Amino acid sequence: MPELPEVEALAQFLREHAVGAVVGRVDVAALSAVKTFDPEVTALSGRDVTAAGRWGKFLGLECDGLWLITHLSRGGWLRWLDEPSPTPPRPGGKSPLALRVHLFTPEADTPAFDLTEAGTKKRLSVYVVTDPDQVPGIARLGPDALAVSEPEFAEILRGTSQRIKTAIVDQTLLAGIGNAYSDEILHTAKISPFANTKTMPAEKVEQLYAAMRSVLVYAIDRSVGQDAARLKSEKRSGLRVHARTGMTCPVCGDTVREVSYVDRSFQYCPTCQTGGKILADRRMSRLLK
């Protein structure tokens, strides 16, 4: 799933490549992805692209007073096409394409970008609104993970009582962090995913805040400036524990372990984070002693 660093990099990519262009034809290939109907998607055609923005993991393009906003969800992505096919895609096909936006640039080029989604569970969403806050998911967002101050961060954690892994991926508490970077942040901070927010010592909260900023800023620095097609591999190459089950922790040499849920999992290092304890698979609902 694209998280704050990748979405920020995509926003920057659109600022550099799409802002200043004019929207041409908009092709909807997956009708279920479009969550708003007034204004219609076709209302974007003929409008100047004036800005690109990010709200947590939401990505948006401003077109003369209208915003095209998407949440790429778990399997979504943005693909840039220098020479798109002039033939409109067939709606309802098996292609991963959800939406294609054709552009006319000041240099007389005619690129496009696709919003695509891999897999069978189609969760990518597209909105056309006059104000980003009209998107329900944006209206519910907590403060951005890179905009929140350390005292605000501590107050957010003190205001809830749950596992820290759950808290920092809750977009209503803190916007932008997902499964991958939460694993990386907790590993960097040397904190167990099951540590409780309510009882976390002040020094651990301070470590966690510093780790959050360092991990996200580093990931953004790696991502911004990359071609949109290379962002996924750039993300993977920078991860130390997430999606590295069974591999060696680059910090201590222990084996990276996994906790699995019904449709997702997270990774951690026992030596770095849990004092050597192995966390049980959550399907077993217990902690191994």
TrEMBL record:
PANTHER family recorded: FORMAMIDOPYRIMIDINE-DNA GLYCOSYLASE
Where's the Formamidopyrimidine-DNA glycosylase catalytic domain?
Answer: 2-119
Q: What is this protein called?
A: Fpg/Nei family DNA glycosylase
Per UniProt, residues of the FPG-type domain are 240-274
- Family designation: Belongs to the FPG family.
- What Pfam families does this protein map onto? Fapy_DNA_glyco, H2TH
Return the SUPFAM superfamilies for the record.
Glucocorticoid receptor-like (DNA-binding domain), N-terminal domain of MutM-like DNA repair proteins, S13-like H2TH domain
Catalytic activity, as annotated: Hydrolysis of DNA containing ring-opened 7-methylguanine residues, releasing 2,6-diamino-4-hydroxy-5-(N-methyl)formamidopyrimidine; 2'-deoxyribonucleotide-(2'-deoxyribose 5'-phosphate)-2'-deoxyribonucleotide-DNA = a 3'-end 2'-deoxyribonucleotide-(2,3-dehydro-2,3-deoxyribose 5'-phosphate)-DNA + a 5'-end 5'-phospho-2'-deoxyribonucleoside-DNA + H(+)
The record's InterPro entries line, in alphabetical order, gives: DNA_glyclase_Znf_dom_DNA_BS (IPR015887), FPG_cat (IPR012319), FPG_N (IPR035937), H2TH_FPG (IPR015886), Ribosomal_uS13-like_H2TH (IPR010979), Znf_DNA_glyclase/AP_lyase (IPR000214)
